């Protein structure tokens, strides 16, 4: 691969990550999967993450894309760490609950990386906010 092809691949990967971090869909999808996992039987600590992620999506819809990306990255990383602490037997990983848990953890990891990227490289002037 020559230099221009490498730059295209890097730019497209960064572009996809940035688009994912600026979208309001991933936090809602993550909140839906978290609620589906922990609603029955009710586990109140993990259920606290769903409203925070929905609020992050609300911020995004209202035009605060950088703040929404940071909020989504923070809450997703906290849930990811909490979910990593739970041990699960090998055979239960391949059931419906295990697959949903894996998908949730994967979405949290994607939200962490892409939201962190948007938050770290975002410019407030593009968003229209005045910095005091």
Give a nutshell description of this structure.
This protein is mainly alpha-helical and 132 residues long. The protein is 77% helix and 0% strand. The radius of gyration is 17 Å and the shape is flat.
Explain this structure to me?
By secondary structure, the chain is mostly helical. Helix content is 77%, strand content 0%. The chain has helices at 3-22, 25-38, 44-47, 49-61, 65-85, 96-121, 124-127. The longest helix is centred in the last third of the chain and has 26 residues, at 96-121. The model has no long low-confidence stretch (mean pLDDT 88).
Outline the fold blueprint.
Elements: H1 3-22, H2 25-38, H3 44-47, H4 49-61, H5 65-85, H6 96-121, H7 124-127
Helix pairs in contact: 1-6, 2-4, 2-6, 4-5, 5-6
Attribute tags:
about 130 residues, 7 helices, mainly alpha, flat
Rounded radius of gyration (Å):
17 Å
Main sheet properties: none
Beta-strand percentage range? under 5%
Structural class: mainly alpha
Count of DSSP helices? Answer: 7
Helical amount among residues, as a percent range?
over 70%
- How far is the N terminus from the C terminus? 46 Å
Any idea what the shape is?
Answer: flat
Number of strands: 0
Instruction: Give helix and strand order, one letter per element, not per position.
Output: HHHHHHH
Please state the average pLDDT score.
Answer: 88
The unreliable regions are none
């Amino acid at each position: 691969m020559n230099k221009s092809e490498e730059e295209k691949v890097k730019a497209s990967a960064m572009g996809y990550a940035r688009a994912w971090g600026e979208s309001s869909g991933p936090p809602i999808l993550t909140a839906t999967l978290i609620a589906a996992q922990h609603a029955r039987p009710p586990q109140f600590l993990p259920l606290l993450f769903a409203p925070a992620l929905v609020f992050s999506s609300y911020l995004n819809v209202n035009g605060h894309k950088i703040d929404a990306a940071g909020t989504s990255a923070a809450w997703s990383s906290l849930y990811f760490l909490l979910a990593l602490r739970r041990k699960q037997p090998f055979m239960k990983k391949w059931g419906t609950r295990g697959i949903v848990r894996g998908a949730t953890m994967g979405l949290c990891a994607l939200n962490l990386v892409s939201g962190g990227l948007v938050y770290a490289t975002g410019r407030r002037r593009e968003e229209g906010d005045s910095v005091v």
